[in-house]
Design a protein that fits this description.
The complex is a heterotrimer of chains A (about 400), B (about 290) and C (about 325).
Chain A lengths: L48 E11 L4 E11 L3 E5 L6 H9 L6 E6 L2 E2 L10 E4 L11 H11 L4 H14 L15 H14 L4 E5 L7 H18 L2 E6 L2 H7 L2 E6 L2 E6 L1 H6 L4 H6 L4 E10 L4 E5 L6 E3 L10 E6 L5 E3 L9 E11 L3 E8 L4 E7 H7 L7 E5 L6 E3 L2
Parallel strand pairs in A: 3-8, 3-9, 6-7, 7-8
Antiparallel strand pairs in A: 1-2, 1-4, 4-5, 9-10, 11-12, 11-14, 12-13, 14-20, 15-19, 16-17, 16-19, 17-18
Chain B lengths: L1 H31 L15 H7 L2 H35 L5 H13 L2 H18 L1 H4 L3 H26 L2 H9 L4 H30 L2 H6 L7 H11 L3 H55 L1
Chain C lengths: L8 H8 L16 H29 L14 E4 L2 E4 L4 H8 L4 H33 L2 H16 L2 H12 L4 H9 L12 H25 L3 H9 L4 H12 L1 H16 L3 H6 L7 H11 L3 H35 L2
Antiparallel strand pairs in C: 1-2
Helix pairs in contact in C: 1-8, 2-14, 4-8, 4-11, 8-11, 9-10, 11-14, 13-14
Classes of the chains: A alpha+beta (about 400), B mainly alpha (about 290), C mainly alpha (about 325).
Subcellular location (chain C): Cell membrane
GO biological process, one term (chain C): transmembrane transport
Protein name (chain C): ABC transporter, permease protein
Chain lengths: ~400, ~290, ~325
Amino acid sequence: MENTPECTADKQPVAASANNSAVPAKNAGHRPGELPGNKPSPTEQNLRPILEIKDITKEFEAFTAVNKVNLTLYEGEIFALLGSSGCGKSTLLRMLAGFETPTSGSILLDGEELIGVPPYKRPVNMMFQSYALFPYMTVKQNIAFGLKQEHLPKSQIEERVEKMLHLVHMEDYVDRKPFQLSGGQRQRVALARSLAKEPRVLLLDEPMGALDKKLREQMRLELVDIINSVGVTCLMVTHDQEEAMTMADRIAIMDRGQFVQIGGPREIYENPNCRFCAEFIGSVNLFDCTLISSNATQSLLRADDFTHLIELQHDIDLADGMPLTIALRPEKIYISHEKPEEETNWCHGVVENIAYLGDISIYYVRLKDGRIVTSTLPNVDRFKQGLPTWDDQVYLSWDAESCIALTI
Amino acid sequence: MRKNKSLIARIVILACALTFLYLPILMLIIYSFNESKMVTVWTKASLHWYYELFSDSQIGHAVLISLTVAFMTACASVVIGTLAAFVLVRVRSFTGESLFVLLITAPMVLPEVITGLALLMLFVSLGEIIPWFADRGIFAIWIAHVTFCSAYTTVVIRSRFRELDISIEEAAMDLGAGPIKVFFAVILPAIMPAEVAAFLLSFTMSMDDLVITSFIAGPDSTTLPMLIFSSVRRGLSPEINALATIIVLIVSIFTFFAWLSMVKKQKRMASDAAKAAKAAKLEQQRSTFHSKI
Amino acid sequence: MSTGFSANMSFIRRAFQAKRRPTKLSKPHNRTWRDYALILVPYLWMILFFLLPFLIIFKISLSVSEIAIPPYSPLVTFEEGAMQIILHLENYTSIFTDEDGTYFRSYVKSLQVAGLSTLFCLIIGYPIAWALATCKPTARNVLFMLVIMPSWTSFVVRIYSWMTIMKRDGLINDILMGIGIIDSPIQMLQTDFAVYVGITYCYLPYMVLPLFSALMKVDYSLIEASYDLGCRPVKTFFNSLIPQTKSGIIAGSMLVFIPALGEYVIPELLGGKGSILIGRILWQEFFNNRDWPLASAVAIIMLIILVIPIVWFYKIERKEQEKLYAQK
């Protein structure tokens, strides 16, 4: 995949929304990130768009929280908005729920305008970060609350509540109050409450935000299982990249009110389209380079920090002599005592420090010009092979396809 | 060593403070059971002054007026306080907010002679236009009391409001409840303790107010504090001791129940937390069980 | 009067909920007509029944007393079709140029009495608040209730109780004579001493409450640090405890000082002929002399004196509120 020359939001054709011959949603039980390579995009899968956000902008007095954002959500997918705090992701979510009114733009749900519809009339439901369970009501009353607002017959409410309780495995805690539940249980009740009304789109605001670290990892997959078994379309907001990558089918990285990149978990990790994304997801070594030559099969670059050239096996659509940035993930850099045979794609340095993290070790290697490069190594290999240790002279090398060329 | 010293210091300080606060009241109570007309010379235990008190129709009338005014005041100022608190916490920074905050803070500290005089002048002036105000009966007193009690109810309810998690209201709305439904189904149960506290507070303050009421009240509406004041001004009277004893008794009963509910709430919170912890433990076992498979 | 008692319910709550869950306060929500409708009721009430009255007494203070109904001269008259506005400043000038200086002296005396009583409340209240704040939570609840409870009983009754024990043959004289400190009973009632005692007694809870809540929030590790760095207890107190409880001290002092300045009931019942405080003057001008304009002028001047402390109190309150909003 080549790099997008610009930091832009996704530009998927919206035309597909007119297509009513929708293909059923993807298989339940599918796990994001499981597919080898890049998944087909939702349009290729022929999914039906359910929610369309067009040019939406929200300005608060002094600043613009969300700036001309476009997004299409497809039937049955889990979509994550990922960004650091204050990037506008929560504002976007709250606009969908109806708690904030956009300054301009439109939100179409199944082709109908949502703006102007009060939150209590929108067919979307939200699971709040603090879960916002009603403290004076039991688990059952909490789940039934939304159904009661629809004035459904009692028997029907009972039935639906039973179903929800079963879905989230809370049958044994029906009459407990929220304060008498553990964090994970509260989360499941909150989920059941927002699913009870069978929303067209489920909104999750930092779903794991209120849980402790250990519980988080377990609940991620459990939550995905529940959501997939219902088949609801889901839009979540998170600042935790691991969470987004384990749970979501597609991720949008947001910064200062705009989407920087949209793609599957694998795509945004392997092929970030700009420095911001590369640095935001995982850790990365970035090198400033100059393009020396480029043709259909090979591009050569000179990095300011290296004595040797960098070679890429594809074309870069830039004039020779132009500056660009090369991103290299630490786990894709090999570390060795022996000098590589190739002419390109390696450098030389001294091991400055090693951080032992249990499963892996991180090597901090100082190059001749003082620059520190990090490289990670699974500890299985490290101790088996007797690899470099402190103050060793080492060679760092990498495969040509590991390099990601970034223009911005 | 230092810890011990500070414990002794605390005990001494609190013992002195409680003596200072309660000794005069205790003396009042003791002498209310004295038969003699002299408030300070003990002769013989009797309930004579209680009998006198209950057969005093003037006091009965004053108590009735005071209770009526206090009840109406408490109801109205809780409503006004709730509205004001809601607006101050949820709407915030609206036009004229600082003036509003000033207007709602000032009655708490302003000397009562000023407030009383000002309100009376208002009623007199309004009376020239609407004769009803010139009457200065129970309703005029009620208006005056609501005005200064609202300041207190606002403070009490506002502090509870601020602790409310706004996302609970949003959740209710998200689940299909309109604004009015949200208020009655979600907000009101949550602020109920504050509403009760505010009600009791304004009830006591209205019951107890002397200076403002003296300015406002016309000749036919003498409240209990006014009656006590005029009788105390005339000299000491064992009947007042008896009345004071009853007031102290009622207040103590209420205080006791307030304390009881506080203790109960703490116990309930502790038991809830214990249940939650147990649930969390069970869940952890379940998760380790899962991971073993 | 029970001014102030729960000025500080907010303080109590804050204090009791030391480990309150953090509240999520989002930005103020979108304002709608509904919000404005809600604010209208309390706003109009306060403007009509609190702000307007002050404008009216200001107006009346600019007229002169007359034997009429109402007993003051109209500000605006219509004579032969022309509108006449007559502003009388006599009330104000008479207050300041009064021959025997009664008014002026009573203002000074009021300031003195209110100031000293505030100081007494602070000196007595601080240790009490400290003792309450540092004792065990279960005991604290009970003791706290006990300290506040007297303020829930009748104000007049509490002053009456002091009248009985400060009498010539009252408890205090009995005890003092019993121990043998004095031979003959001291005159306590009808003196300034009684007024100080009365004000201190009645206003003590309003001092203790804000101090208590401030002391509950004190970071005691700073005090340990001060000890650790070699400061003696007295120095630690002034270095560490006082600065940390400053807002409580100011709020408590204002809650005592401002209402005490206009106190009427206590000097009337406990004070002698010498304790002519401004509250009494106002009352007499109004009820005994029926000079409404003069009483209004007295009130307006008192209000002007109080503007600074009231604004100070108001600012402290706002700051506290802002602080609460800030901690998300």
